Amino acid sequence: MDSVRIFGQTYPKVALHNPNQPLGVFLDQNQIFINHHSFSSLSTPYIKLSRSDKKLVDQKITNWLELLAQKYILQKTPLLAQKMNLAGKYRRICLKRASTRWGSCSSYKNLNFNYALIHHPPEIIDYVIIHELAHLQEMNHSAAFWRLVAQYDPLHKLHRKQLNRK
Questions:
Q1: Which residues lie across from 15 on neighbouring strands?
Q2: Which pTM was predicted?
Q3: Residue 101's CB: how many other CB atoms inside 10 A?
Q4: Which residues contact 25 (CB under 8 A, 6 or more apart)?
Q5: Mind listing the pLDDT tens digit for each residue in 122-147?
Q6: What is the dihedral of CA 35, 116, 164, 112, to 10 degrees?
Q7: Contacts of 123 (CB under 8 A, 6+ apart)
């Protein structure tokens, strides 16, 4: 794929070799750049890269996206927990490469989130965080659980529908 979605926005991938820039991945000018010493030209569209260079680019972007997801979720979860009067009620937060779930809350009060949430807009990510935090109080999907979710995300039905559509 020659583009990537980050927080709901789509960015074309561009490979770059610029010794005046730090190596790594960065967003600039509505594009995602991967600056790496192995690329020969100053700026190359993703579609023109060799198969091995595409693999390198994709791995660098995946690593960068996982760090971005981790940063967002690790910062946002305690803020939402505080707002929901659930601060200190969970044991830990883990990010995983889950294939079927966006998030979960274990009986041990561990919150788990899927790295792929980073592709969705912040309000969708926040919905998943609120949903999992609500399980700290209601370990089911009862009417009381959904009332709690609705209290902190009045658009939760829309957000849930958008999340399951993608």
A1: 34, 44
A2: 0.91
A3: 11
A4: 32, 33, 34, 35, 60, 61, 63, 64
A5: 999 999 999 999 999 999 999 999 99
A6: -160
A7: 155, 159
